[in-house]
Amino acid sequence: MSYIVFDVETPNRANDRISSIGITAVKEGRIVAQYATLVDPETHFDAFNTQLTGIDAEKVRGAPDFAELWERIGPIMSKGILVAHNAVFDMSVLRQCLKSYGIAWKATVPYLCTVQIGRRVLPGMRHNLDVMCRHYGIPLDHHQADSDSRACAEILLRYIKSGVDVDSFVKQYRMR
After folding, report:
1. Sheet harboring 2-9: ordered strands across?
2. Does the CA dihedral 37-41-42-47 come out positive or negative?
3. pLDDT in tens, 83-114
4. Domains assigned to the chain
């Protein structure tokens, strides 16, 4: 099974545009590829988001907008089950971007949420990404999309290697 683990950072509280994305591909129980880029969200940045991610309008100057980005990542995102930590957030931002840019994609996509899996297999602990990384000894530069997607992929691999049937947690997300 192939998993496309991704993380997005957003420029403001509307959470309908992306300022950075990290993608980590997992196949046959190992990480096989990584991709990350800043994205020009073509909208304003809130101070909170800039403080959290270190990304501002100056930093994304010259970066691809979402339409340009989608030409690169659309084929990648179609090659497996999408995975994210707190997936409903990342899936929602992706759906909003596709809608805002008038890009037609699949009506529904399969996805996994490592938070939801964690709550089932490791009850009684917090499942924030930084907490899970400390638990598993995974390096993390939090709120950096490349690091967050890699860490999420590592968590997914820990679940798989411990015998968790992660595919039993697959859900469908409505993209339209």
Report:
1. 30-38, 20-27, 2-9, 81-84, 108-113, 171-174
2. negative
3. 999 999 999 999 999 999 999 999 999 999 99
4. 2-169 (3.30.420.10)
Q: How far apart are CA 45 and CA 94, in angstroms?
A: 18
Reported in sequence order, the residue ranges of 16-167 that DSSP labels E, i.e. its strands, are 20-27, 30-38, 81-84, 108-113
What are the backbone dihedrals phi and psi of residue 18, each rounded to the nearest 5 degrees, phi first?
A: -115, 135
Displacement of CA 35 from its chain's centroid (Å): 11
Which pTM value belongs to this model? 0.97
Residue that is written with structure tokens 């805002």 in the block: 100
Q: 24 and 99 in contact (C-beta within 8 Å)?
A: no
- In 3-state terms, the chain is what percent helix, strand and coil (to 5)? 40, 20, 35
